[in-house]
Design brief:
289 residues, alpha+beta, 2 domains, 4-stranded antiparallel sheet, 11 helices, 11% strand
Length: 289
Amino acid sequence: MNKKYRVFIETFFTLLAAALSALTLHVFVYKNSFAPSGVDGIATMLQETTGVNAGIYSLILNIPLLVIAYFFLDKRFLICTVLFTVLSSLFIYLLAEINFYQYEAKNERLLAAIFSGILLGIRTGTMIRLGSSTGGVDIVASIFQKKNSYINIERIISVICYGIIIVSFAVYKDITSVLLSFVQMYVFEWGVNFIMKDNRDAVEFKVITKHTEELKKDILYELKHGATEVDTVGVYTEEKSKMIISVVNQRQIPAFLNIIKKYPDTFVCYTKVMGLRGNFRWRKSDIVK
């Protein structure tokens, strides 16, 4: 991709993500007495207790994290994150200044939590796909992941985010507010995963069999997919065998399992594939979809 075009795309989507973030927080969150996770949640609680605009707090809280990120993360990541942080904070401030519409639920606060979770998840997922972040806890996650790639940082970040939500009880004095925040966090994670998920549903089959040739023909000519053949040795029996690895469409699971039934002494396991790149079909001349 041309460098100038890539910069334009990244800037455009960062602008959209910042606008979506500000609109979601202003419209669905601030008037409904619950705090989202991360820095957004801290800024929301500070606004609730002091009356000072959350956009100001968001910028102040992110500045030290961005300074730390300067020493650990790459320039492209930092530029997009700074741009998002500044724009989203500015948009939050401006929306309050012009008294933009806010959805103030009476008996439907759950709807506010659900919709804000979906939209903020889309926002965060978009920034991650750009190779950047929304600031706050995401910066901490990126730094830890770069320094210690083997650590399951997502679990640590989740604990921090849920901890912030629990603290919100001290601000709102209402257990319902805390429960709404938990709902919002759950839906938020779903929204992120939805954006991060590849647009093709696929399943990876690993088949250990002595019927290699027959199975390969079935995969090639019945399922219209390719496969990889690997030599294997049983740890307990020490018997030599073959393992066939093939990635197929999710709707082809029943067809694949029906093929396996023809070979009763065959072992198979299959898992859902999160992402897929490259030729998904059995002939090299076929167009990649």
